[in-house]
Amino acid sequence: MAKKTISGMEEQIRADRYLGNVTLSGSSEVELTVGYSDDDLVLFDSVKLLVAPQSSRLQMNIVAFCTQGKIQIDLNGSNIVFEANQIMACPSNVSFSNIMMSPDFEFKALFISDKMLQAILRTRMNSWMNLLYVRKSHVATLGAVEIGFLVRFYEMLKVTFDERGNNPYATEIIESLLRGGFLSLLGFLMTQLGEKIPPEGRKSTEMVFQQFLDLLSNQTVKHRTVEYYAKELCVTPKYLSAVCKTHSRKTANAWIRDYVLDDIRYYLMQTNMSIKQISTQLGFPNTSFFGRYVKEHFGKSPSLFRKGDR
Prior knowledge:
Blueprint: E1 2-7, H1 8-19, E2 23-25, E3 29-37, E4 41-51, E5 55-58, E6 61-68, E7 70-75, E8 78-83, E9 86-90, E10 94-101, E11 106-112, H2 114-121, H3 125-134, E12 139-141, H4 144-162, H5 170-193, H6 204-217, H7 226-233, H8 237-248, H9 252-270, H10 275-281, H11 287-298, H12 302-309
Antiparallel strand pairs: 1-3, 2-5, 3-4, 4-11, 5-10, 6-9, 6-11, 7-8, 7-10, 9-12
Helix pairs in contact: 3-6, 4-5, 6-8, 7-8
């Protein structure tokens, strides 16, 4: 187990190592107690933000439990509050900004890759996607039973990680523990929202919808046509749009637009990239088209939006 305090340029290098390419901007200092780390999973015994970063973008899924204090953040532009005895779950590729925290804020966290999460949840992955992408439920207050379960779940994971060299079945045990823990968390969240837990197994339309969100969230260039995404999924554009409407009451075009706007908001507000660089990064044909797109959706030119919202 390693405890590290990192800042400045060193912070960026070590954050890339430990947090799966987390992008942090602004002056910040992070005290990390790392319990386990590999390409698909990072377990933190403790994360204390000594100074709040201006922004961050995660390329791994995160499940965090606040042990003390309180933080207020914008998650892809939506304000949330995360405090003691609450759990926060976020999908990959989300951006955090406008971070304000109490001096004593501290949390435990588990970062997990899309690949491992899919392998763990298997046929329940669609319910997870529905909560985080469609319902956008990211924070839940836990009762004594749920807190007790998570503490024990965490302790069992920690013991298994520490002793993994002595047990030939450690990998299978860890996968089983993670599946049980995530399914329990999913059950807690669905119960709080009053949602029915669907029977095991999925319809083909649910699988297509999940694959569409996976594909969309992991694209650097999201500003593409429905036809492009439909071709990647080997379905027709009409079928893809119908699937999206069925499972989220939003069209495929609306999903694409919302993801593109999240990226635009992040790059304009949280980076120092030029407007031309952002336009190119996000796949727009030229800055004029990009400017019209921003003006249409935000009511301001990119430069005015950047000045007014920073």
